Amino acid sequence: MENSRKKSGRRNFLIAVGAGSSAAIAAVAAKTVPQKEAAAAKKDEQGPGYQLSEHVRKYYRSTLV
Amino acid sequence: MTDLAPEDAARADFYALLARLWHSGPDAALLAAIAGAGEMVAEGSQAELAGAWRQLKAAAAAADAETARVEHEALFVGTGKAPITPYASHYLVETGRERVLVALRDDLTQLGLKRDQASFEPEDHFAALCEVMRHLVAEGSSDVALQRQKKFFTRYMHPAYNPLTDQVMASTKTSFYGYVARFTKAFCDTEAASLDML
Predict the structure, then answer these.
(1) In chain A, what residues touch B30 (CB-CB under 8 Å)?
(2) ipTM exceeding the 0.85 mark
(3) Which of B11, B24, B129 lies closest to B73 in space, CA to CA?
(4) What is the DSSP letter of B87?
(5) A44–B112: do the CB atoms touch at under 8 Å?
(6) Which residues between 7 and 46 in chain A have a beta carbon less than 8 angstroms from any beta carbon of chain B?
């Protein structure tokens, strides 16, 4: 499929430049980030994005030290 | 996030790191974490990102948190007009800053996002844009999610990152942030190229 061909091209590129295979590298640094300070954008819990907000809260929790 | 591909998890983390570094100066723990993080492995001709990461690690190892904090403040905050503005709308050639902010707020609302009440920064701060990208990347690796990332990156981050990082790299007042800027540019170049493949 055209779409999956494009996606694998992108994935191979990210791995070739070193960005794709280094999740652990960035995570080390990202874990020390106090997300409350860095977060200039946040879910609007009353808004249309409500269904996604639990998702985000979980993600934020997962990144807190 | 079970449906998040490893390369996208890495991107989300790098956006988180960039958001933190552009928002305010690093503390000692963050400097130590960057300095102690692993090397990036890149294929021969594609070494810019890995090289920029290696230099940022070295700079973090050599930097002092208080000096880096003062440097961030001197560059991007300042009293009156800061030497270098971190607000993306400044670099968008179209229309005025207010109109860009209105459009950005509309787009954020559509994405279900809004400014943290506790933050005094307008939405177009480069750190805020990185934070939005982090959120969009963390939403998953589906076609829809990737297209959403591509749209936001192309509209707001792409026009801003080159002039912003170029100014920081050209400044004579930087030490640590010169390396932050170089890594940011290399990372955003990678983002632009990879999103362009979709």
Answers:
(1) 29, 32-33
(2) no
(3) B24
(4) B
(5) yes
(6) 7, 9-11, 13-44
Taking the CA of residue B130 and the nearest CA in chain A, the distance in Å comes to 9
| B71-87 residue pLDDT tens | 999 999 866 678 899 99
> B114: which DSSP letter?
E
Structural fold of domain B6-196: TorD-like (1.10.3480)
**Plot region of A49 (φ>0 → left; ψ -120 to 50 → alpha; else → beta):** alpha
Confidence (pTM): 0.84
How many angstroms separate the CA atoms of A44 and A42, rounded?
6
List pLDDT tens digits, range B11-22: 998 999 999 999
Q: Residue B19 and residue A40: Cβ atoms within 8 Å?
A: yes
Distance CA A6, CA B34 (A): 32
Name B184's Cβ contacts closer than 8 Å, sequence gap at least 6.
Answer: B18, B22, B161, B165
What is the Cα–Cα distance from A59 to B56, expressed in whole angstroms? 26
Sign of CA dihedral B65, B33, B192, A59: negative
